Structures are given as structure tokens and as C-alpha cells.
Recover the amino acids of this structure.
């Protein structure tokens, strides 16, 4: 054990993998060699053992409670990230002879569309490409006969988020990788939710897929076993060895969310944190947001300095103040502050006050 | 931090996930909240950050050194387990119009064959099914024109292991999930090695794929991006977010192996541990091994009690002595002691002496 006074913790604004609750990390640390008297690390446990089963079911049950999932939804604990779901979704849920709707709001929805095009017939039902993804498109053109309607609920690179889900579409399939569990979700017409864990939920290496049971009936026979949702649905996500440690830490993170009051409390917290930064952007001065107000993300706040040549200096001085990973995605540049669930309010206050200080010295 | 005197550690003979070196767990524990002064947990780091890059490349370099891999091999850090490789191997490496050879030595090679049958033409080039998988088949019938020759190097359920790799075959594809890094590997004619990490290498959630570069030229275009080996080969296994924590712990485990002297030292250790148990089985008495001598696994030792009705009592008394997870796989019953790299010699001695004691009281 290190001298705890020597432990350093920075304010980590990474877009993912991202900061985790300190209490979750402390718990994982304390239990690392001996999970609750079992004499084993969670990393060493047979996935067929009763002690691991409690951890595994614990996460699934926690997700059910937090999201208010009825028995009509299967909760699958998978691997491969949202990137693998880009292919698994159409392989499983886009029957031959049907078409699927995709809304294009940035890099990730374009990738989802590209993988679906390899599998079957697709259609763009809305896009904000013409305005460089600075908003969620208002005008949608859903095909009522589509197999499903796919959208990315939050766009980490563009810094946009759907304020509410569209209606009048085929069953919604949501890539919620970057805002799952950050706010309550209206499940009306939601056919499926998928998410990599490494932003709001836990460490990388776990992918969540929540699928409405009636959609499983569409799955064609003959898919590779590991790519067929029915494989893990029929085995409680224990068909093969799951990513046990990531599942354990995600379970601790869900407990932490439940302890704080669930998704409504999370939304209030997340809105409060985002407002601390957006209020700076709205004041004018040296900062300007890159996103239309009504499409702003509570998770990833993207902005520029009016004098963009000052941006490297902004990032450098921020890092000197232990405010790290604030650089915008390499494809768009600028500044990005990611404020997922576990980002403490105190860290966001540090960033806001750094922005004020920087403005005073460079404005 | 818990009072370290309260920490309990059992002798964990699980077939996987399996025991990890205590020093590796202690290191992971010490660094959990602050990886070497970075102010972040490895679970929180951007996978695009220089600090994570050192961890990621560190594992790849360690694997290259340990296995003696030349530049003609790509080392890929994947997800999904060997079960996903059962499909990815033929999707990538079995061209239309060709056939692949499979040797059937138990449950896992049967599953690999079944997935390959969905993709293309396959052929059984050897099997020990007629003797209930009690040996590695002597008589092989390789097709010299085959696209590849697939075998499972170690069989966790049957308790068998290839003492040496066959020659005169098409390029070998090895499912080495349960004995990778446990002994030196002759790379002559090895086209690919794949392995889930959770036995000899680290925690579950990481899958290793080592592919000879010339085989990448066979891959057909149009595969789902995440299922095409070229995707991660072209991006240093950073196309999307990798399972960072599992990679980190596997890297610590590889450092531990290198510190002990590499794969030759591992083989000596592993042979010594296995001999402690096999010598009991060879003595006659109340135990009998289930595997032909020349096919015995150094990793998973399977045996029965002559009076099989005593087996539940054996397992119960063993567990009372903190010797846990000794039950044979549910498909075959009996006893199984898994002695992967990290299983300490002292734990195997405990098991051997428990076997002696049990024999004295019940023989």
C-alpha cells in the first residue's frame, strides 16, 4: 500500500475512458486482493461461482432499477464496444427486404451507418452535416415502415445531445455510449439501447446492450454464435467468460448512482455542472460555444477561444493547474470538457474559475 | 484501505478466470487511484494519452519478447474471448473455395469447428472423440492444401495438452487460451495464436490474437470493421477503446513472468507443480488420472476417485482447507486442479498433502 498522502488526483476531463467516482475506486482498491472475505480478487474468480454470480446479477438488477426496465427488456453484458454494435445491430435487427433509418449527427452515427450499409438497406432520416454537426437536426423524415430508427443520443466530438427522443418513428435504437445513466430515459418506443461502459458507467471493456424481447424474434438463424443477441440473452450473459472486473466496477458505479438518488438526481447534478461552463460561454468574452443552444450536450462541452491561436496556451496553463484532457477531438480541434456522471462539481468549479482567470490575463 | 491482517487468500484452482500472482495484485492495488503519479486510475485514462500508450505498448513488447515473435507477426489486443475467434478465424482466413483442417480434442475444438462450418468448408483432420478425449490423437490426416490447420493446444475440460505441435500441415492456428505463456512455443509453421487472457495472462475481457502478416493478405473485403484483423493491425489495437485495465494487469503479469526468467523458467515451474499431483495419481491408491500419460496437461489435471461416491466429500473437505474450485467441469465430473502460471508451488504442495491426508482417512 502506498502512503496515501502521496496519492495525486487530477481533474480529468477526458471524453472517455473517463473519471470514476473516488469512492468507487477506493472500494475496488480495498477489495482487490480479497473480495468481501472470499479470499480471491474479482479478477481471479470463476465466472461460474456463486460469489461472482452475485456481482453479475447485481449489475443487471441495478441497471433495471435505474432505467426502470420492465421484464420486456433483456440486459446483455457484452464486449467489443459500440463499434461492434454498429455491425451487430443490423446483423440481428435489419431483416432482408426491410430498410433502417439512421440520423447522422457526427462521426459515430456515420460509422454506425457505414457498418449497416454492409449488411442491408439503410436510409438517412435526418442529418446535421450541412451545419457541421452544430445541432441535432430539427427536420426528421422517418420511414414508418423502417425496421428501426437509429440515433446517437449524445455526440462526444460535436458536443450535441438529443434533448428529447423523436416520436412517430420505427422502434428507436439508441447508441447511448456517452450519456447512459446521466438522466432519465423515456422508454416509450425504445427497441434497444447500447453503450460502451467507459464514460458514465465504468471502465472500458464492457458493452451494455438492452434489447426489447420482441425484437429478438427477428434475428436470422445462422449468425456467428457470439454475434447473435439470443446467445447471451439465453444464458444471462454467461455463455462465455464475461469481462468480470469491468462488470464489478460498473456495478459499484451503479450503486453510487443509486445512493445519490438515481437518474433524476444525476440529471440535476449534470445540468448544474454543465451550467457552470455554459454560463461562461454565454457571457461573450474570449470564449464561444460551438453548438446551438437547444442542442447542447450536458456531457461534452465544446468551445473555441475567439482568438484560436490562444488555445494551445489555454490547454497548457489548464494542465499546469491539473485540469487535464481538455483538448478537443483531433478531427475538430478547440476545447472540450467532458463532464460525465462521476466528474465532481468541485472540479468543474475549478475549471470555471480557471476560465475566468485565463480570460482576465489574456482577454 | 482495509487492515491488511484481515485479508484472506484461498488456494484457487479455478480453470479460469484463475489465480493471479499476488505481487501483481498488490501492484495493481497500490496504483489503483494514481497510476505512477499520473493522478488517474488506469481505468480512467484516455486511451489516446501518452501515459496509457506506454501501458499498451508495454504489453505488446513484453509478449513479443516472451514468445520471441519476429516482425512478421502482428500482436492484436482484442475483445470477445476465444469464442469470438472461433468465428473471426474462418471469416478472415478461410477463403472461399478452400477448406480448413480441425483437430477435435474436446468441447472447445468442437465449438471452433461448429463456427467454422457456418463460414466455409472444413474437414476433421484428427479426433480423440472415440476415446472420450482422453488423449491427443496420434493419427493425424492433414490436408496439405488446407487454408490452415486448427488445434486447441490445451484442453481445460479433458485435461490434455499437445506435448509438441504437429508438422507437415498447413499453417497452424492455435487456440492457446489455456496454456499461452506457460512454456516456450515453437513458431515454425505457426500462422496464428489466439487466447483469452483469463487463465495464464491476466483478467477476463482481453483476447490476444497473434497473426502472421502474410495471412492478412487473404482477408476478404467487406467484413464488419471490428471483425477484420486488419482493422486493429493497422491501428496498433487502438481503432476503438481497448480493455485498458485488463491490458494493464496482463502487462504486469508478463513483467512478472519475465522477472522469473521467461517461458523456459515457466515450463520448469509448471512441470514441477504438475508432477507433484501426477506422482500421486501414478502411485495407484484411491486416485486415478483420466488422461493417457503422454497427453497429460501441465495446466489442468483431471482425475477421479476410484470410489467416485467419495468425490463430493473430497471436494468438501478440500474447500474446508481453503483448496477451492477443484470440481471437474460439469460435462465430465470428477476432480480438476488447474495449475496455471500464477498458481504458487506452495498451494500445489498443500493440495498434494491434502490428497495424502484424504487417502489416509478414506483409503
Amino acid at each position: 500500500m502506498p502512503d496515501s498522502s502521496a496519492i495525486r488526483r487530477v481533474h480529468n476531463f477526458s471524453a472517455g475512458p473517463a473519471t470514476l467516482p473516488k469512492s468507487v475506486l477506493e472500494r475496488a482498491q480495498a477489495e482487490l486482493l480479497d473480495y468481501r472475505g472470499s479470499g480471491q480478487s474479482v479478477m481471479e474468480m470463476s465466472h461460474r461461482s456463486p460469489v461472482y454470480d452475485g456481482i453479475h446479477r447485481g449489475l443487471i438488477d441495478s441497471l433495471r432499477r435505474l432505467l426502470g426496465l420492465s421484464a420486456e427488456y433483456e440486459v446483455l453484458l457484452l464486449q467489443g464496444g459500440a463499434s461492434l454494435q454498429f455491425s451487430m445491430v443490423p446483423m440481428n435487427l435489419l431483416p432482408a427486404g426491410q430498410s433502417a433509418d439512421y440520423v447522422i449527427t457526427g462521426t459515430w452515427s456515420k460509422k454506425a451507418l457505414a457498418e449497416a450499409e454492409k449488411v442491408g438497406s439503410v436510409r438517412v432520416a435526418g442529418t446535421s452535416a450541412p451545419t457541421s454537426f452544430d445541432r441535432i437536426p430539427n427536420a426528421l423524415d422517418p420511414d414508418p415502415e423502417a425496421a428501426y430508427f437509429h440515433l446517437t443520443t449524445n455526440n462526444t466530438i460535436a458536443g450535441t445531445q438529443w434533448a428529447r427522443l423523436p416520436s412517430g418513428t420505427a422502434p428507436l435504437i439508441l447508441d447511448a455510449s456517452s450519456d447512459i445513466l446521466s438522466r432519465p430515459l423515456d422508454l416509450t418506443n425504445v427497441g434497444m439501447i447500447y453503450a460502451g461502459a467507459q464514460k458514465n458507467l465504468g471502465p472500458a471493456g464492457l458493452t451494455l446492450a438492452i434489447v426489447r424481447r420482441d425484437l429478438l424474434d427477428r434475428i436470422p438463424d445462422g449468425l456467428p454464435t457470439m454475434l447473435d443477441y439470443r446467445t447471451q440473452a439465453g444464458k444471462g450473459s454467461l455463455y462465455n467468460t464475461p469481462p468480470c472486473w469491468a462488470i464489478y466496477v460498473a456495478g459499484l458505479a451503479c450503486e453510487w448512482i443509486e445512493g445519490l438518488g438515481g437518474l433524476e438526481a444525476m440529471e440535476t447534478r449534470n445540468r448544474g455542472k454543465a451550467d457552470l461552463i455554459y454560463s461562461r460561454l454565454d457571457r461573450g468574452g474570449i470564449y464561444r460555444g460551438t453548438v446551438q443552444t437547444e442542442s447542447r450536450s450536458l456531457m461534452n462541452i465544446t468551445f473555441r477561444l475567439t482568438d484560436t491561436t490562444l488555445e494551445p496556451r489555454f490547454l497548457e496553463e489548464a494542465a499546469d493547474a491539473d485540469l487535464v484532457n481538455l483538448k478537443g477531438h483531433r478531427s475538430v480541434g478547440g476545447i472540450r470538457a467532458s463532464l460525465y456522471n462521476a466528474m465532481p462539481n468541485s472540479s468543474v468549479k475549478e475549471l470555471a474559475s480557471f476560465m475566468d482567470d485565463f480570460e482576465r490575463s489574456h482577454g
Observations:
- The mean pLDDT of chain B is 96.
